Structure formats: C-alpha cells, structure tokens
Amino acid sequence: MSKIRLSGSNSGYVEIAAAADAGNLTFNMPTTGTALFGNGNNVISGITTFNAALDINSSVDVSGNLVVGSLLTASALQINGDVTFDGATAGYDVVWDRSDNALEFAANAKATFGNSQDMQLYHDGNHGYIADAGQGNLRLRSGTLEIQNLAGSKTSAVFSSGGGQTLNFNDSAKFVTTNTGVVVTGICTATSFSGDGSNLTGLSTPLSFRNLIINGAMRVAQRGASSNSAGYQTVDRFLTQIQSGTLTQSQQDLSTSDTPYTLGFRKYMRILNQSGIGAATNQYAQIDHKVEAQDLANSGWNFTSNTSKITLSFWVRASVTAKYFGWLITNDGTQRNHPFVISDSNGSGTNLTANTWTKITKTFTGFSGITINNDNGIGWQITFAAYYGTDWTNNSVSTTSWNTFTSGGYSPDFPSTTWATTTNATFDITGVQLEVGDQATTFEHRSFNDEFLRCARYFYKQSGVSVEMLLSRTGGRRVANVYFPVPMRATPNVSIITAFFDGGASISASSASIHHFKAIQNSSSASGAAPNFSEWSANSEL
Hints:
The chain is mainly β. Helix content is about 5%, strand content about 35%. It has helices spanning about 260, 295, 345, 420, 450-455, and strands at about 85, 95, 100-105, 110-115, 120-125, 130, 145-150, 155-160, 165-170, 170-175, 180-185, 225, 240, 245-255, 265-275, 285-290, 310-320, 325-330, 335-340, 360-365, 380-390, 405, 425-435, 460-470, 470, 480-485, 495-500, 505-510, 515-520, 530-540. A hairpin with a 4-residue loop joins strand 2 (about 95) and strand 3. The protein starts with about 80 loop residues before the first strand and ends with a strand.
C-alpha cells in the first residue's frame, strides 16, 4: 500500500477539513503501525473519537472536558482542574475540587477500606460516621488523643498512652483515671453502689445528703395532713402565708399516673384557695421553705463569687393556666432578692399549663453583695407564690440577677389574678431540691428515718408514749427529764398537750435546752397516783 504525505511549507500548514454539511471527518487507520505525530503541538478541536488504542508518548494538554468511558491507564497522570467521579447512583459523586484543595464526597458516598469494605467513612446528610462492621476492632492510634469541639477551643476528653484518661465538663476535668483508681470532681450520682463501703478511705463528708432542702419529697407531716391555718401546720419544714381569706394547706398522695410518681415520689404539698382570697393589692398566697444559714455557709457554694453556682429544682402543678413566680430572699447583711419565673418550658414559657406537672430548674450565681452567716439563723427563704398583689410587686425587679430587697419588690407583676379569684383553685409542689453546681441532678431520695430526724431538729412531736414522773427529792413534786431524739436547732418552745394526773396537779415544761426539758408537777399538795403525760411537742422552727 502506498503512503500519502501532506506537508505544509515552513511557514504554513496543511488543513484537512470536511465540507460544512458533511458531518465529522473520520480517519480509518490500521490498528497497528499507524501514528499521528508532529514536531510541535497537534491541535484537535471538536469531538474526537478513537475506536482503538491511543498511544501518547508525550504530554497531552486537554483544555476542555476529558470523558473516559472505560479504562484509563497511565504511568503518571496530572490533572490541573476539577475531577468528578460519577457514582452509579445519582447524587453519590466524588469530586476533586481543585479550588478547595479537597476531595469531596457527596452524602452517602463512602470511602471504604478492607477486602469486604468493612470499614466505612461517610456522611448521611445529617451525621458523620466511622463504621467498622468487620470482625476486628477499630483502633485509633496516637500518643495523646484529644476530642475537641469544632472550634478547637474546648476539650471534652483526653486519652494519654502513658498517663491518666480524662473526661471533662465545659473544659473542666470531672473524671480522671490514676494508677490507683479514679478521681471524681463534683457530685457522683448513682442508682446503686456495690459493696458495704468498708474499703472506702479519705471520706470527709457523707456520700449523700447533697440536697440542702429538708423534706423536699413532702413525706414527713408530724402536725397532720390538713389545716385551714397558715404557718407550719402540715408538711414539715414548709409553711404557708396568706394575707386574708381561707387557705387550706395539706399533704396529698400522688396518683400513679402523675409524672412525679414514676420518679419515686409519693406525696406532694397543696394549697387550696378555699373561699377565693380575692385579688386585692395587698393579697398574697405562698409556700415557703427556710434554709438554715450554716447549711448554706458550709455547703461548698462560694456565694460571693459570680462564677460559683447553686441550682434549685422542683415539680409544680396548678389548676389555673397562668404564669407564677418564686424568689429567694437572703436574711443576713443587706438583704437580697432573686425572683424566678414558674411557667411551662422550664420557666421560660408564657403560662404554666393547668393541671400538668412541670419540672422547673433554676440556677443562681453567687454575688459579692450576699452575706450568709455561719449560724443557726435563716440563710435563705425560698418562696413559691400562687399569687401576689401589686403592693408586693415591681416590674423593675430582675429575674436574672440579685436585687436589693424591698418589701414592695418581691417579683415582677403577676400577669393574672385568676388563681386568686377562683374558688378551690390549687397550687401543688413536690421534689424540691437545692444543690451546689449548675446542674439539677436526680432527686436525692433519702430514707424516711433520715428525713424525719432532719425535721426533728426543728420540730418534734411525741404521741402515744406515756412518760412516768418520779418524786423529786426537793419540793415534793413529781418531775421527769425528757430528751429529744436529736439536738434541736435552738432552745425550743415545749408544749405538753395531753397529761394525766390526780388531785388537780397540772404539768408544765421547764428548763428546756437543745437536748431536753423537764416536766414538772405544778403542785406539791396533789394527791393520788403519780401523774404522767403522753403527748408533747417541741418547736424550734426558723
């Protein structure tokens, strides 16, 4: 076969072109022994199809798109633009984005490793995954492995090859392993502990009793379950206050369908607006709890520091849809007041939904102007208000900071008077907990005996146990020394409620201390059998 050579002059070129209407120009060449070559650049414009192998022994400059439908083999390949690897499923592409300097995987496009693609690295459009379905383990190797937030400003965990492993909360170490065990910083809450604790060492404080509220589950009610009087009348350590009208306070049983019941609570305290107290400007209706000052002072809370926090949590329910308020009032030094909102959405909503138990959590920071004495007086009064009239409210009072206390500025204005004007409206609370820190932990359910003895420091009532009185060596009177189950907060007021005596000899309490009192027969001339008494109380409430 003869050859055809088309040669241009030194300054020109030879162009082979199809007619304008003839379509593509096709070279049909043998599969071997055919070459296109030149001394400079060969320029092929338009769409070029090679049905056989294309052997290129020099560089190829592709200024447009290069589409490879089958196999591309090269000893070295340099691409100076974007490269798209088209997935078999639409939207599963992998792109080398030259401008981003990144290999970009579309959602659900996976980088897989292993003979069976057991390990996968991908993002499903919502979350990122490192998944290994193989038989072996997923191992992350580093001298020190740190888990940080996206900005790299905070570290959640540090795993060291030769030292302790650390878990942080807000960049503060809370759990650290050591060569002898672990170190826990803060409160350790557990549903149970294994063992009897005999091997525990170095304990300076009890493992429990983090709740500074006494009888927060409303279990103890020494005075009775119901009363139409204000003050300390039913649930121990909680009292009611009312300006006028009839307000019933009571200890109630939770229903099995109530949310707090499922969390271990069985009782709650209720105030009932029996007669409709009315919405007078000087009216109020509230439940109070007073915390002993030395319990706060020795709690570990730095109450003068604005970085130290203490958290109040409780369950609340009301029969009237409305917004309610509560507040803390300090007792020592310059009195301070900190209101808080009681509504839905944990106090950030508009109203408390009627007849619905809602958990409220409020965290308070310390303040340099707070004074709490290390004594047996009132440190705080915590108030849960069903209603307050405008004589006691002030819209300039902040619910996010401590205010200088004034009698007319307990809280911002109550937006509704409906509870005060609704006969038989109810306001219920239970599960009250006050603890150091910025988190509301699971409620601390103490034993009934522990809770009762804590209540007995402030009030104790004995019934049904006869106390025999013996003849005194002096005066001819009968006396008895009676000791309290625990030391009382302060010298109590003792009342002998039920006494039995002959000959008109009455019995009175005398010489009371925080430990005991004397019961004395008032007349030495009384005749008959020795007197005795079976019911008495000692009151040392704040």
